[in-house]
Amino acid sequence: MSQTENQYYDEFGFYSPQELTRATRRQPEKDFHTGPDVGEVVPAVVLPDQNGDLINVAESLGPNGGVVVFHRSAYW
Amino acid sequence: MTQLVQLQGIKESLEVAGYSVFAISNDPVEVLQDFAAKHDIAFPLLSDSDSAVIKAFGIMNQLIRPDEGQSMRWYGIAYPGTYYVDANMMVTDKDFHQHHARRASGSSVLARVLGRETEIHSDAESVDVSERINVTIGLSEPKLQLEVISQLLVDIEIPQGMHAYASGAPDQFSCLTVEVEGDGIRIGDVSWPASEPMNTLGIEEEVPVYTGRIRVSVPITVTSDVIRLGHEIPDSLQVSVVVSFQICDDYECFLPESIEATLNCALARLVEPEGLSTYADRVEALEAETGKPVR
Questions:
Q1: pLDDT per position in chain B (295 positions), as tens?
Q2: Cα separation of B178 and B153, whole Å?
Q3: Fewer beta carbons within 10 Å, N or C terminal of chain A?
Q4: Which regions of chain B carry the CATH code 3.40.30.10?
Q5: All CATH 2.60.40.1250 domain ranges in chain B, comma separated
Q6: B126-266 has which CATH code?
Q7: Which DSSP state fits A6?
Q8: What DSSP state is assigned to residue B71?
Q9: Nearest C-alpha of chain B: how many angstroms from A54?
């Protein structure tokens, strides 16, 4: 595990100023929640986009649907 | 992050097929604005800054305490994953990963939406070996990236009138196998197409075989070993692929043999400490500007 002052790389090689023992840097346990299952309708999503415009996903889907990706952060 | 850039790369193909794409994180709008401008992202990067939507989906990472990692907005992050929804917001498919670092590649998202096979990317290096069988090896993405799961595709062409034995064939035959090795990579389970039953060489039971052209795919990702190996992060990795097989026609069998090939896989930039400090700086600047905590 490489480590210099305030620089830590975790087992995935991701940099963070946090120590490796902090909970955020640990691998989650086996059971973790993955939200609505196949066949269920997802909750409403109305959020501002990168331009500050409010987007209602239900109204912005393509004729066949869409892909909704949850990610850690744009910079990760 | 690289996943968003890959998604931008498949946006048009998704739209042609009638699908739109959205990305959600707890990043503040301003951080998303910076990122979108820098990487030409034209699909919605949605800011769930108080994690309300992440909580409504029930996918907030529960291991993080509210007081942990505030400078990097760790509290409130989602488990990373992808929902595929129809036009009525009903889930048709989903793909989740435990660790926040792991994610699906652009091409795998596209293949999943369109229900089609992943192809060898036109910008990726590929290797052809023509011996008793033809083998073509290549990657689904132009470059490998840290913890982004790409596919190593092995196309095998068995000459007409010949067959190769598939897993489940009796012990006297050598089954077709694909072995992948290399420093700094992690390999998932090899996925094989369905074999066909065949009556062969006076054996009473039917034997599973492959004929014609088959495609084998192997999930592959770069691990942080490439960082630990030394000080310089390489531009590419050598991945060695060994295809072992025994082929026969209706009358005779050749001896078992193998084909070995080395694929030179380009590596994308792996970690972006600069990106992360930009992020932390931006969060701090925002707080100073607005006088409100955005952490």
A1: 578 888 998 999 999 999 999 999 998 898 899 889 988 999 999 999 989 999 999 888 877 777 665 556 777 888 888 899 999 999 998 887 766 666 777 877 887 787 767 788 877 788 888 888 999 999 988 888 877 788 899 999 999 999 999 998 888 889 999 999 998 888 888 989 999 998 866 677 889 999 999 999 998 988 777 765 555 677 889 999 999 999 998 888 899 999 999 999 998 865 554 455 555 666 667 677 767 665 4
A2: 11
A3: N
A4: 2-116
A5: 126-266
A6: 2.60.40.1250
A7: T
A8: G
A9: 9
- Interchain contact B229–A (C-beta under 8 A): no
Please give the interface size between A and B, counted as residue pairs whose CB atoms are below 8 Å apart: 278
Do B241 and A37 meet the contact criterion of CB atoms below 8 Å apart?
no
CA A32 to chain CA centroid, nearest Å: 14
Tell whether B140 is within 8 A of chain A (Cβ): no
DSSP 8-state secondary structure symbol assigned to residue B31: H
Architecture label for domain B2-116: 3-Layer(aba) Sandwich (3.40)
Query: Which chain B residues have a beta carbon less than 8 Å from that of A58?
Result: 89
Compare CB distances from B46 to A24, A49, A58 and report the shortest one's residue. A49
CB nearest to B1's CB, from A22, A61, A74: A74
The residue of B6, B20, B295 whose CB has the most chain A CBs within 10 angstroms, and thus the best one to mutate to test that interface, is B20
